Amino acid sequence: MSNTIHDMGGMHGFGPVVAEPHEPPFHEAWEGRVLAMQRAMGYTRLWTIDGGRASLESLPPITYLSSSYYERWFLGLEKRVVAHGLVGEDELAAGRSLRPGVRLNRKLTTEDVPRTMSRGDFERPAAAPARFKAGDRVRTRNINPVTHTRLPRYTRGKTGVVEAVRGCHVFPDSAAIGGGDNPQWLYTVVFTARELWGEEADHSIKVSIEAFEPYLVPA
Amino acid sequence: MAADDHHPHEHHGSELSDLQLRVKALETILTEKGYLDPAALDQIVEAAETKIGPHLGARIVARAWADPEFKGRLLDDATAAANAMGFTSPVGSHLIALENTPETHHMVVCTLCSCYPWEVLGLPPVWYKSAPYRSRAVIDPKGVLAEFGVKLAPETEIRIWDSTAETRFLVVPMRPAGTDGWSEEQLATLVTRDSMVGTGLAKSPAGAKSRG
Description:
The complex is a heterodimer of chains A (219) and B (212). Helices cover 29% and strands 16% of the residues of chain A. Chain A contains eight helices and five strands; from the N terminus they run ααααααββαβαββ. Chain A has helices at 29-42, 49-57, 61-66, 69-83, 89-94, 113-116, 172-175, 193-197, and strands at 137-140, 159-169, 184-192, 205-212, 216-218. Chain A has a five-stranded antiparallel beta sheet. The longest helix of chain A is centred in the middle third of the chain and has 15 residues, at 69-83. Chain A starts with 28 loop residues before the first helix and ends with a strand. Chain B is mainly alpha-helical and 212 residues long. Chain B has two domains: 11-49, no CATH class; 52-206, Nitrile hydratase alpha /Thiocyanate hydrolase gamma (Nitrile Hydratase, Chain A). In chain B, strands 1-4 form a two-stranded parallel sheet. In chain B, helix 3 packs across helix 4 (68-76). The longest helix of chain B has 22 residues, at 11-32. Chains A and B meet through helix 1, helix 2, helix 4, helix 6 and strand 2 of A and helix 1, helix 2, helix 7, helix 8 and helix 9 of B.
């Protein structure tokens, strides 16, 4: 879902940013297990990184806000393993396996772990030339899909300038819903704060997003 | 699970232990069903705790400060330049380096989730993933910077990068004055995590001494 609580840019009321001095990588051991389970189950390729994000975004807003970061990851992972038929609700309730697992195409072994410590490559061959080039003025479309998107609400229907062409990449809006890679050109698009937030915004501030071509029209 | 056992005055503690049990149960189920190797999980946790971290990014920044030719390559293709450093685990695609100057200060956020260049900075801190930072970085960056104790010259343009795709951003902070002739190793001690996200500046030589 796109217009949900995860899309936070520009919201008010969350208070100051509080940094913790000398913060450890994990505050509790279970957080590390959740991160590792997320990586290991992601390795099976049963869902995409965007499918994973979508499962967090569709948590009830109150759950999303009242859960810690790794708690959200855990709740999303629980939902996903059930949705993909890997685990039954009855097994989660029982806290143990009640039947044999399904066959996976890939299982993460200790030999493969180093490979999961590098991010994947999301660039793909392009089917058509890029529609825009650096310097072009573009307008973001006003879209409100009920499925996953990476065009934040605060940047919809706004005019900006293409600063860079970043290559042709997996399109999250498709990949999240089982629509395959559907590669699209990706651009850095810069907006003035005044365009995003109105006449009274600070002149010295600019904001950029990484925008996929289907989000953009010429301005 | 045992929701009736929760009492308001001990909400936090009981919530955590309930969650710990559920996390343990899920790992047990996934292992029993043959989907997971717990030894692989141990390795991932160990790598996250001991191998990746801002010390990697600091080495990249220090080299960029010390070697203009490297800085050029870093700004041109940060993935390739970072991988030329020979870190244990290679940096994935689309790392982009952003050079802070007296004219422009770059600051990175992910308003939609928590995208972060963890291969070179380690796991993101809680504040980076928090609602206050994600909501305010794009609408009130000066207020956020003030909370981090950063005050920029009034003529400096602030540029916020919202990480909405699989590109990742590493800020190259300005090299502090008084560091002429410093080695890369010495320079790296001045490069903080926050300075590579854009919510901080590199430490001054005096500041580095006073903070050990």
